[in-house]
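Researcher: Structure prediction, please.
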Amino acid sequence: MFLTTIAVIGLALTLDRLVGEPPNAAHPVAWLGRLIAPLDRKWVDSERGQRLAGFAIALIVPLVPATAAGGLVFVTSIVSPFVGALAAGLVLFVTTSLRSLLELTETVVSATADHDLETAREEIRGLVGRDTSTLSPAEIRSGAVESAGENLADGLVATLLPFALLAPVSLPAAAAAAAWVKGVNTLDSMLGYPSKPHGTASARLDDLVMWLPARVTAVAIALAGADSSAILRAREWARYPPSPNSGWPMATLACVLSVRLTKPGVYDLNTSADLPTVADGERAVVVVGRAAVVAALLAVALAGSLEVMAL
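Model: Predicted structure follows.
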C-alpha cells in the first residue's frame, strides 16, 4: 500500500501541475459551495439559536463530500484496485490547489512591477478578502505573499496530511478524510465570520483541523527557504493575526524572505524589515513552490513510517 500511496499522491500533484484548477462547473468544491450558500441565512431570531444551527451545519455538511469521496473510491476499488487508486488520486487532486495559487500570486506581483495597479487590485481579490482600493503596490505584494503562505496550508497541506496518514490503511478512508477537511475549510471560508453566529462552530472546527497543517507548513517553508531558524523567529509574530493558525506560515515566510508583511489595522509581522519588493514577491513564489515539495515529501515519509509501524 505504501507504493500505491506514493503513486496516488504523485498522480494528484501531477494533475495539479498539468491541469490546475478544474472549471467551476466541474469542480466538486464549487458544488459544495452551492450546497452551503442556502445555509448562510438567519435560521432563528436568537443568537444562541443561530449558534446551535451552525453547530448542526458544521457537524453534517463536511460529511457530504466525505461520504461521496469515500464511497466513490470504495465502489471503484471493488471494480478494480487500479481504478480505485485512480479515483483516490482524483479526489486528492480536487481537494488540493497549488498551481493556481502560485500563478495568481505571480500575476499580482508582476502587475505591481508593471505599475498596473488596477489589474493587481482586481487579481488579488482571488487571494485576500480585504479592501484593496487604497493599498500601495508594496501592501498589495504583502497581501499576495501572506496569502501564498497561508493558502499553502489550507490548499495543500491540510488535505495531503490526513490522506497520507490513512492511505496505507484504506484509500476510501483517505479520500473521505481529505474531502472532509476540504468541506470544513469551505464552510469556514463561507460562514466563519464574527458577524455570522451560525458560522461560529465552522470557524472553531476549522481552527482545530488547521492546527497541525499550519505548523507543518511553517516547517516546510523554513526548510524550503534553507533557513531552519526562521520558524523560531516566527514564534514572536505568529500570534499577531486573529487566527490561531494562519500566523505560523505567514510569519515564517516573512522571516525566510526578511520582509515585513502587514494587513493594515489588523497585524504587522517582522516589523524591522521592509515591505516586499517585486524581487521578494518573485522569491516568495519560488519558496512556496519548494515548500509544497517539502510538504509532499514529509507526507510520504509519514505514510512510510506508519507502514513500517504496522508491520
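Model: The chain is about 70% helix and 0% strand.
Researcher: Thanks, that helps.
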